[in-house]
């Protein structure tokens, strides 16, 4: 990505300014306090979770490795976005270098896709645990986690990489104010003097290919889980089956709802305040990480009790 820094700078722009919620400057102090608190809580909770799993030998199992991966992704996303937003709110540090901007763009696109893919793997874990409990130890093992991690990293690094490259190759003729708190692809690309059709099409295709396919497969997994649960006849089996995946499903709904609202506000940007999608984009990188900890504790509690479905199927 560094190879594109000089090429972009020579086009007349040496850096960008993040015009974060400039239309409502009184929001900055009001938002910075809860945002900073959520950031600290998210970072602290994720760090504690990682240390606990690392230090506790009984937690060295596939399902906890998936939780660790999710926590690592949360930490990277929070560190990529929130400190810069807080610097804008507190010190009016709007400037961001070209390299830092495109690096942030790459991390956001890649790690959000990794998070979505991790949800998919966890949904498959729930499917195997409930629909094929006797085969669970042989399917969901350490080798499965390694292969899943390699797939998550490879798919979601290679496919989103063209996004910052396409944006970096554009010519920026003078306007350098990004109407966003972060270096989102289209927020940056629209400042260019060039045609950005390819950027728009690739972003759209990538979103549906990665996030769209993940959500479809996740909901398919839960449809199969629901069908299997309804067939369980043992006393308490239905409640136990639903409790092991209910919190995870709520987390999936929250993740997809935030993205859906963000897309809709962009589509209807003439009818809603332009600060709404900007605010949602910022909160998306910290609120899910914080809420996720409570849900992860519920998952950990259920997993620690064991599956116990073999007698119910």
TrEMBL record:
Molecular function terms from GO: G protein-coupled receptor activity; olfactory receptor activity
Keywords: G-protein coupled receptor, Membrane, Olfaction, Receptor, Sensory transduction, Transducer, Transmembrane, Transmembrane helix
One Pfam family cited in the UniProt record for this chain: 7tm_4
Main location: membrane
Record's bilayer topology term: Multi-pass membrane protein
GO cellular component: plasma membrane
Transmembrane domains' residue ranges: 29-52, 64-90, 96-123, 205-229, 241-264
Keyword Ligase belongs to the record: no
Record PROSITE patterns: G_PROTEIN_RECEP_F1_2
GO biological process, one term: cellular response to lipid
UniProt protein name: Olfactory receptor 56A3-like
